[in-house]
Structure to design on (473 residues):
């Protein structure tokens, strides 16, 4: 028997490959399914099942494409949803045979109503692992406020109560030596305090996971709902794509991986309502970019910020990327449901610049330069675009908080006729903020390279006393 966790850092997501006696199953696959198919082929195994722990909100699963390409059966837990594809709707405690192993469905509603865990019995007949999806994370549990946005008359309090019962009645009675394999780790928006570890024994989680400690249902509901921030806006749309179906990833790539000359790129920008998305790093973008581009760097929390900044999944997108990374960008957009990339700038920004076309830029200054400016005029306008909790824990004295998460509200704090010095934690989010406002006609924003980390380390600018973030929840 083989178990392999396939972890994708940008989504903090774990998919799983299980194989026994020539048969394989994939749990919670990503959108691009070819790697799973190739893995099974190398091992002379046939993919028999695609097991889904729930209708995912934070990414578009590859279940539909994987089933179409391999003949595998899609399996979901008990659900009242009408789906746009064929699937086995399993009953609680239903058992599936995979080679010489068995996989039992355990219905664990709470994160969503259809959430399930999959209990794996190995080839020797011993219960070895449990794949807990978003029901149980390492150090945390799935947030119970997402499904209420999809299912009518469902409240987060009701879901939290379901989760309490699922954990106590379905998971806590299981053996301590089971290995817990969750769907996410630290960095995912599907929980609030996940560990960086991506697996653990159930016994250890019983000791250290706050949600598994002895408490009343009322206390649990209060605790699990405490400190939740609003989920990314694209989550409900991803859920519906996972329920109703979507275009094949092959069609998405064919549509998006289309090289455009500078002239063709400019024509496409002028003739459509496409958004120009520049995915280079922040400082490269600042030095020069196609006018009206927005910058969301591929090497940061790309999917999360694309989802937060681009509200419509059907928005047409023109891509500017580092040469050789165009397909990666379009694939990662598709992972979170942005299927309408319509081409990329062949040769990247250099080709645009070398063709003599109009170029824009954003002024970015070092911390030393910022410190000198602030020393000369203590009343300059400083915008901190980090989350409010980050700002409250520590910030530049007299800086104003304008979180990127709520950019439409934050931009109301900006006067087009005044100059602002903008920073985040390290320089990624501030350039996203600056680029969006620049495209909307705000020309007097100056970026502080290196963000608050560099500001604090310089010891040249006064910052507030540190307050532990956990005390602010």
């Amino acid at each position: 028997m083989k178990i392999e966790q396939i972890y994708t850092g940008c989504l903090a997501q774990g998919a799983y490959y299980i194989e026994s006696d020539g048969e394989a199953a994939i749990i919670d696959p990503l959108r691009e399914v070819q790697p799973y198919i190739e893995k099974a082929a190398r091992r002379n195994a046939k993919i028999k099942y695609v097991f889904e722990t729930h209708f995912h909100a934070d990414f578009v699963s590859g279940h539909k494409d994987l089933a179409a390409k391999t003949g595998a059966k899609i399996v979901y837990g008990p659900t009242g949803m009408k789906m746009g594809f064929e699937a086995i709707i399993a009953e609680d405690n239903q058992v599936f045979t995979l080679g010489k192993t068995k996989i039992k469905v355990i219905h664990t509603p709470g994160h969503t109503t259809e959430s399930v865990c999959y209990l794996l019995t190995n080839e020797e007949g011993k219960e070895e692992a449990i794949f807990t999806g978003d029901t149980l994370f390492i150090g945390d549990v799935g947030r119970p406020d997402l499904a209420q946005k999809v299912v009518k008359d469902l409240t987060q309090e009701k879901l939290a109560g379901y989760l309490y019962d699922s954990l106590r009645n379905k998971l806590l009675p299981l053996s301590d030596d089971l290995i817990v394999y969750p769907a996410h780790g630290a960095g995912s928006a599907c929980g609030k305090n996940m560990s960086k570890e991506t697996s653990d024994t159930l016994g250890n989680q019983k000791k250290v996971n706050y949600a598994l400690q002895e408490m009343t249902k009322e206390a649990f509901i209060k605790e699990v709902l405490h400190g939740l921030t609003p989920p990314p806006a694209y989550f409900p749309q991803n859920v519906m794509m996972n329920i109703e179906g979507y275009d094949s990833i092959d069609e998405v790539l064919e549509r998006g991986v289309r090289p455009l000359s500078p002239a063709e790129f400019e024509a496409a920008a002028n003739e459509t309502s496409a958004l120009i998305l520049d995915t280079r790093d922040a400082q490269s973008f600042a030095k020069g970019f196609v006018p009206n581009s927005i910058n969301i760097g591929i090497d940061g929390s790309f999917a999360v910020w694309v989802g937060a900044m681009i509200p419509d999944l059907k928005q047409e997108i023109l891509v500017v990327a580092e040469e050789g990374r165009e397909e990666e960008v379009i694939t990662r957009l598709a992972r979170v449901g942005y299927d309408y990339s319509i081409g990329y700038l062949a040769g990247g920004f250099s080709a645009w610049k070398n063709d003599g076309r109009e170029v824009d830029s954003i002024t970015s200054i070092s911390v030393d330069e910022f410190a000198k400016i602030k020393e000369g005029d203590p009343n300059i306008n400083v915008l901190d675009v980090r989350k409010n909790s980050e700002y409250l824990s520590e910030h530049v004295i007299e800086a104003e908080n304008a979180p990127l998460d709520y950019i439409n509200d934050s931009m109301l704090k900006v006067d087009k006729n005044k100059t602002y010095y903008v920073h985040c934690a390290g320089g990624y989010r501030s350039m996203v903020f600056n680029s969006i406002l620049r495209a909307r006609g705000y020309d007097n924003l100056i970026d502080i390279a290196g963000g608050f980390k560099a500001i604090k380390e310089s010891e040249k600018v006064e910052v507030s006393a540190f307050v532990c973030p956990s005390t602010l929840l």
